[in-house]
Amino acid sequence: MTPQPLLEVRNLSKSFHGRRSGDAKVMKAVDDVSFDILPGETFGLVGESGCGKSTTGRALLRLIEPDSGSVSFQGQDLLKMPRKQLHSTRRQIQMVFQDPYSSLNPHRRVGVILDEALKIQYRLPRKQRTERVHRILDRVGFAEDYYYRFPHEMSGGQRQRIGVARALIVGPQLIICDEPVSALDVSIQSQVLNMLHDLQVELGLSYLFISHDLSVVRHISHRIAVMQKGRIVEQGPTDEIFSNPQHPYTRQLLDAIPASHPRLARERRTALTTPVS
Amino acid sequence: MTNPALLTVTDLKTSFLTERGPVTAVDGVPFTVRRGETLGIVGESGCGKSVTADSIMRLLDEKDASYSGSVELNGRDLLSLPETEMRRARGSELAMIAQDSMSSLNPVFTIGNQVIEAITVHQKMSQKDAYRLAISLLERTGVPEPEHRMTQYPHELSGGLRQRILIAMALSGNPKLLIADEPTTALDVTTQAQILTLIRALQSSSDMASVLITHDLGVVAEMCDRVIVMYLGQVVEEADVDALFDSPQHPYTRGLLASIPEIDGDRSQPLNVIAGRVPTLHDVPTGCRFAERCDFATDKCRDSAPPLEDVTLETVDMLAGDATPRKVRCWNWRHIPMNTSATTAKAIR
């Protein structure tokens, strides 16, 4: 028996119109998108820039208001929810953004940034909040004195761990990660990916992992959807997508990934240039 | 088979005056590039790879930046050329394409304007001939409908097309050396593959050499013949591309290779993490610059800086024949067990 999905997205659509009213140009950024995310699962959403993957992530949380469709979270449709209820549902669904430089307030100390996220969702006495902030900092691997640091005193990887901590502090079940490691160097990227994985195992979190990087998505995702021009062209278990891609676009994407070894690169080039007799 | 060196960089140092005092962003970098060869320079942000490129082209503002060492192109030291001669060399002997195609092109002029300008700066010819040459350059770099593109502005083109235009401009003076600084980093993966294929094709149809600067080891695997790995302003390893992937010697190179999720890697294993962070240039360690992040560091590593040692003879695979130069900047590279990635090394301890 398959477990009940945590999130069910059905026929989600969002179009953007040209700047002038009555402009005939309509851009279907998200076009009839449907998928499920199971508890404890990482669902990867992959595609090239402009394919609508970020808009999809934002539309789920109504950071961008979708045109139609349904987003059912634990049986409740987020798209039909009154604003107030939606606000408290965001305790369950949090977001981590791509750029750890612009998504943290440069004027606030780390402790205050985390405390603010907590205050928005829960009425707790200051002492309890502070305790919780310290616990979360410890959980994402920071020493106590980081409470008083400013974002500019930290590296990109450290900032992104604060971004994750800010999402975690309200106790979500689902985190939408929009290109969370794209701005980071590879050695730092691996720190954040490993941490996301450990948190998932420990807390049973689900992730919607949005990325253009197929190797990263493959590493972290249980299932993957490939998006092109606003539509999901293929979805399935990670290993199946990579070993047996069905859609021509998926194949095209996979073929474009640079080889992991120069010998493989040469073999592929020879295979491409040798005419089939 | 001795292919003469086209570019010989010796002990290149580039320093900047900053508010917090002078820093040396490139600190004693040596390398050579032979005719027709592609040399990769890899490293993470802040390692000095882009400053190395800018120093070869002498693009830095010489009010705050100072160079020492030498950059010999065809036997002539670019660093000691007067600016007027350097200007002539740029674009005709060596050319560069940068990462961000949008800011490399002038937004208020048409593509045609800019390509023709690039041509006529170096070659005396009529506007009509320059136009014809521009069209043929755009054709060579795979730009569809070149006549139409000439009338368009940069914002009207996709990132991939803009990068092709920049390559066309770089090729206009038939340079002997092309420096490409993260030429595909801003592009989608399918566009990246097309641009890499284009650069490769252009190179094989001439004897143009290139220096490819990238943080992406996949791009290195696809494009390069030889590689230097940089860390905090210094070269830590130099090797033939196969050797680098087969048997990385420096702990940093090993850590870097093990950090990347590979498209055919084992997904059940956690990725390697290089602990700590890169020190700042204001605070360069006295010993090995990588020591505090290294699993194999000893007291010697922390106390004294290792030289970039030529280890060609010790690492050469006798069966493979040709010895290609191999250098490592590490006191202990001989004692780090081979075929042990940094991750498993941690487990052994």
Question: How would you sum up this structure, described in words?
Answer:
- The complex is a heterodimer of chains A (277) and B (349).
- Chain A has 277 residues and is an alpha/beta fold.
- Chain A has a domain at 8-18 and 39-103 and 172-273: Rossmann fold (3-Layer(aba) Sandwich).
- Chain A has helices at residues 53-60, 83-89, 110-121, 126-139, 156-168, 186-203, 214-220, 238-243, 248-256, 262-273; strands at 7-17, 26-37, 42-46, 68-73, 76-77, 93-96, 174-178, 206-211, 223-228, 231-237.
- In chain A, helix 3 packs across helix 4, helix 3 (110-121) runs parallel beside helix 5 and helix 5 (156-168) packs parallel to helix 6.
- The radius of gyration of chain A is 20 Å and the shape is globular.
- Chain A starts with 6 loop residues before the first strand and ends with a helix.
- In chain B, a hairpin with a 2-residue loop joins strand 4 and strand 5 (76-77).
- Chain B contains 14 helices and 12 strands.
- In chain B, the strands form 2 sheets. Chain B has an 8-stranded mixed sheet with strand order 6-7-8-3-9-10-12-11, with helices on both faces. In chain B, strands 2-1-4-5 form a 4-stranded antiparallel sheet.
- Chain B has 349 residues and is α/β, with parallel strands linked by helices.
- Chain B has a domain at 258-349.
- The A-B interface holds A 48-49, 155, 157-158, 185-191, 193-194, 197, 212, 214-216, 218-220, 238, 242, 252-265 and B 44-45, 188-190, 192-193, 196, 215-222, 224, 241-242, 245, 255-256, 259-265, 267, 270-274, 277.
Topology:
The complex is a heterodimer of chains A (277) and B (349).
Chain A: E1 7-17, E2 26-37, E3 42-46, H1 53-60, E4 68-73, E5 76-77, H2 83-89, E6 93-96, H3 110-121, H4 126-139, H5 156-168, E7 174-178, H6 186-203, E8 206-211, H7 214-220, E9 223-228, E10 231-237, H8 238-243, H9 248-256, H10 262-273
Parallel strand pairs in A: 3-8, 3-9, 6-7, 7-8
Antiparallel strand pairs in A: 1-2, 1-4, 4-5, 9-10
Helix pairs in contact in A: 3-4, 3-5, 5-6
Chain B: E1 5-18, E2 21-34, E3 38-42, H1 49-57, E4 65-73, E5 76-77, H2 83-89, E6 94-97, H3 101-104, H4 111-122, H5 127-140, H6 146-150, H7 159-171, E7 177-181, H8 189-204, E8 209-214, H9 217-223, E9 226-231, E10 234-240, H10 241-246, H11 251-259, H12 299-303, E11 309-310, H13 312-315, E12 327-328, H14 342-348
Parallel strand pairs in B: 3-8, 3-9, 6-7, 7-8
Antiparallel strand pairs in B: 1-2, 1-4, 4-5, 9-10, 10-12, 11-12
Helix pairs in contact in B: 4-5, 4-7, 5-7, 7-8
